[in-house]
Design a protein that fits this description.
Jelly Rolls; globular; 20 strands; about 0% helix; mainly beta
């Protein structure tokens, strides 16, 4: 894996899991429950102080706030054998109805866009709080990082909300560390994957868990995906319920998550080594909807 991507398919081999989101480490905060199609509740959260947010309340059709986000590199997904071209424009990344839309679209064969040596098959969207080679627009160590999202359904879909260490430009991946707050692949529609990635010598190490809805698919509605991160520990939550906790003692490599701040990434990947390619049942355009992203510190 290289510094241009950081996202890896090994989350599918998560080492801890639960069959439902019933909690494996205590209850998360209240006040941000994810069900329902309208705007989520207020940003106030008992026990936490809001320090950064994007509510995506710009005019319909507008671009993201460039004081908070930058576009991902067009070919960032090639390191996972993904099939999308991340288009840095409002064709694929825009605000409508108080939600961020990251839209994947199928391309004609003669589009002229190249993904490596092959013609790109899809365009999609990716935004980050740090551009490669540049200082972060936002970065943070420790706290609660949450997003209320409605993910797309379909074979080959790979939506993600994740973070990379801010030192990636100098140390590369996996030494910088990666926190996958939420990943889903279309062939496991009810499963939320949360994973830590870091170094083990000159190799990659990972530790993660999963939770599965008792019925239906994650794409059926909005849900709140979060981590609560403190020294030596990262808790993963779905709809404010902890389903997995990764600790220093458990991690099978160097626990770099106490060393430096991380920055945030949202993207909708298509295809790749983990989800596989779209098939005849996959519907395009497909959208990842984001109601809000909020970051908190523990209340004093």
């Amino acid at each position: 894996m290289t510094a241009s991507s950081g996202k890896t398919a090994t989350a599918s081999t998560a080492t801890s899991s639960s069959s439902s989101s019933t909690g494996a480490g205590g209850a998360g905060g209240q006040g941000t429950t994810g069900s329902g199609g309208g705007k989520g509740g207020g940003a106030s959260l008992p026990g936490w102080t809001l320090v950064w947010s994007d509510e995506f309340n710009g005019p319909d059709g507008s671009a993201v706030d460039t004081t908070k986000w930058v576009y991902g590199g067009p070919l960032d997904g090639q390191y996972n054998m993904e099939l999308e071209y991340y288009n840095p424009s409002t064709d694929n990344v825009f605000i409508v109805g108080g939600n961020l839309h990251l839209v994947a679209k199928a391309l004609p064969m003669n589009s002229g866009l190249m993904c490596g040596t092959l013609a790109c098959q899809y365009t999609s969207g990716k935004i980050m709080t740090k551009a490669s080679g540049s200082p972060s627009l936002f970065e943070k160590q420790y706290g609660r990082f949450s997003a209320r999202m409605k993910i797309p359904a379909g074979q080959g879909m790979w939506p993600a909300f994740w973070m990379l260490g801010n030192n990636i430009d100098s140390v590369s991946w996996p030494t910088c560390g990666e926190i996958d707050i939420m990943e889903n692949v279309g062939n496991t529609p009810a499963t939320d994957y949360g994973t830590l990635h870091g170094p083990n010598g000159n190799q990659e190490a990972n530790l993660g868990g999963t939770t599965m809805l008792p019925s239906g698919a994650l794409s059926d509605d909005f849900h709140v995906y979060s981590v609560e991160w403190k020294a030596g520990e990262v808790d993963f939550l779905l709809d404010d319920t902890v389903y997995f906790t990764g600790t220093t003692a458990q991690f099978p490599g160097t626990f770099v998550f106490d060393d430096h701040p991380f920055y945030m990434i949202l993207n909708l990947a298509i295809g790749g080594s983990w989800p596989g390619s779209p098939d005849a049942t996959t519907v395009f355009p497909a959208e990842l909807l984001v109601d809000w992203v909020r970051v908190y510190d523990p209340a004093p």
